[in-house]
Amino acid sequence: MCAAALVGAVTLTLPAAPVHAAPEPDPSATGEAPEPGPDPAGASPEPDGSGDVSLRRLLTRLQDLYRRTEQATEEYNATEEGLKAQRKKSQDLNVRLARTRTRLADGQADAGRLARQQYQGTGAGGLSAYLRMLLADDPRDVLEEGHLLKEAAGGQAAVVSRLTRNEKRADELAKASRAALDRQQVLTEQRKQQRDAVQGRLKEVEELLSGLSEDQLAELGRMEQEGTDDAQRSLLSSGELRGARAPSASGERAVRYGLRQVGKPYVWGAQGPDSFDCSGLTSQAWSHAGRAVPRTSQEQWRQLPHVPLSRLRPGDLVLYFPGATHVAMYLGDGKVVQAPRPGARVKVSPIAANPLLGAVRPDRDAAALRAYVPPRWY
Q1: How far apart (Å, rounded) are the C-alpha atoms in residues 295 and 79?
Q2: pLDDT-above-90 percentage for the chain
Q3: What distance in Å separates the CA atoms of residue 107 and residue 158, rounded to the nearest whole number?
Q4: CB contact at 8 A, 97 and 170
Q5: H helices, E strands: number in the chain
C-alpha cells in the first residue's frame, strides 16, 4: 500500500505540543499494538455544539496515530538495516566456509597419502626404517638418517594438525552459518510484522479522515497550526535559540540537499531520490555532504554527538518525542526541513512543530564557515 496516497490532499502538520512537555512513554515502543478499546474520536464529530470538542479529540487521536506510525516506520527501518547486515554476514560466512572446506579436502588428500606411505613404508625400495636397519651392512648408516626421519615425522604431524584445525574451523563456521540464517529468518518475519503495523495504523488514519467533510478537515488544520504557532512562540521567547550561526562546509551541503527535496512525498521506508521518510531524508542529506550517519532517528540520537539548542547551527539534526521517533534538519532562524508524515511532502517547518527531545551534530569537530549566505527556503 502506498502510504503517501492514504490521506491525499490533507495537509495537517505534525503534532504541536508544548516544546518541553514530552508525552508519556508509548506502550507501542515494545512493538506490541495497543489494546483495542472504545475510542470516541474514532467516529465522525458530532454536528451539535460539542463538535469543536470532538474535533480536538479527533485531532489528538490522529496525531497519536501518526506518531505511532512513524515509530513503527523507524522500527521497520532499523530491522531493514539489521537484515542487510545479517545478509552480508551470512554471505561472508558462506564464503569462508567454502574456503575452509576446500582446505579441508586438500588436508584429507594429504592425510590419505600419509596413510598410504605409513602402510607401504617410507624408506628406500619401500622398506621401513626397521627393516633397513636389519638388512644394512652397517646399521649406523641408517641411524645417521635419524634427522631425516625426524623431519619426516614433523611433516606428518603438521599434516595431521592442519587437518584437525580445518575440521574444527569448518564445524564452527557451519554452525555460525546456520545461526546467521536463523537470525535472518527471524528478522525477515519481524520486518513483515512491523510493515503490517505501519499499514494497519495508516488504515486507521484513512478511516478516520474518510468520514470528515472539507470544512472539518480545514478546521482540524487550523487547530493544529494554532498549536504549532503557540509552541513556536513559546520556544522563541524562551531565548533557547540564541543568535545566528554558520554551518560547516559539509553542513551547508547537507542543508542545500535537504532543501532541494522540498515537495517530494513522504513514503515510509524511503531514502530517495523520489520520496523520503524522516530519517531517510536526514541520512541522505548528510551522505551527500560526504559524511555517513545512522539510518534511523533513534540511532542518530544514540550515536551522534549531542548539542544544546542554544548552540544549534544549520545542518544539525533535531530529534522529537521521548523515543526519538522523528527527526528533522535545522536550517536556522527557528526553522527545519523535514519529511513530516505519510500523506505529506518534504517541507520547511517551525522547529517546534513537534515536542522537542534534543539535537545532534554529525560533524561536531568541523569548523564553521567564515562567510555563509543562507539559501532561500521561503
Answers
A1: 11
A2: 33
A3: 10
A4: yes
A5: 8, 6
DSSP state, 368? B
Tens of pLDDT along 213-235?
888 888 888 888 898 999 999 99
Residue among 74, 29, 82 nearest 277 (CA): 74
Cell of 29: 515502543
Q: What's the rounded Cα separation, in Å, for the pair 23 and 332?
A: 26
Residue with cell 522537542: 356
DSSP state at residue 81: H
Q: DSSP string of 205-241?
A: HHHHHHT--HHHHHHHHHHHHHHHHHHHHHHHHHT-S
C-alpha 335, offset from chain centre:
26
Number of C-beta neighbours around residue 176 at 10 A = 16
- pLDDT, tens digit, 9 for 90 and up, residues 78-104: 777 777 777 777 777 677 767 777 766
Q: In what order do the strands lie in the sheet with 335-338?
A: 306-307, 356-360, 317-320, 326-332, 335-338, 347-350
* Residue 290: C-alpha distances to residues 257, 285, 314, 374 (Å): 12, 9, 16, 20
Which candidate, 325, 323, 316, 265, places its Cα nearest to that of 286? 316
Q: Are the CB atoms for 362 and 315 separated by under 8 Å?
A: yes
Alpha-carbon distance of 281 to 45, in angstroms, equals 35
Cβ atoms of 338 and 329 within 8 Å: the answer is yes
The grid cell for 42 is 474514532
Q: How far is 129 from 150, CA to CA, in rounded Å?
A: 12
Judged by DSSP in three states, 332 sits in strand
User: Can you list the alpha helix ranges (DSSP code H) found in 121-138?
Assistant: 129-135
Asked if 325 contacts 340 with a C-beta cutoff of 8 angstroms, the reply is no
> What is the spatial distance between Cα 236 and Cα 158, in angstroms, rounded to a whole number?
75
- Who has greater pLDDT, 1 or 195? 195
In a 3-state reduction of DSSP, which class is residue 101?
helix
